[in-house]
Design a protein that fits this description.
about 90 residues, about 45% helix, globular, mainly alpha, 3 helices, two-stranded antiparallel sheet
């Protein structure tokens, strides 16, 4: 199990280097693509998100975007796939 966890961590690190600008989480205001910008609740808590590297080929950009999509936006995508349009979070 430890070996599997180690391989998953290595794969995650490689994907982060390949896909993400800066290689890790960023404040929402630093993410230019609104589809990847996480919802910011009122108050002081700041939810971090991920910005994709510029210049990714279209197929790789799509794959990377699926990995970097915030929870609420990803839930909306799954809802549309399962139930059709109309179910959108605020």
């Amino acid at each position: 199990l430890r070996e599997e966890v180690s391989r998953l961590r290595q794969r995650r690190t490689a994907l982060a280097r390949r896909c993400l600008r800066g290689g890790g989480p960023l404040p929402a205001r630093a993410i230019p693509d609104s589809r990847l910008r996480p919802f910011q609740p009122p108050g002081r808590a700041q939810i971090l998100g991920y910005a994709l590297r510029a210049g990714l080929p279209p197929a790789e950009r799509e794959r990377c975007a699926r990995l970097a999509t915030p929870e609420l936006q990803y839930k909306d995508i799954l809802d549309r796939r399962q139930f059709g349009g109309g179910n959108v979070s605020v």
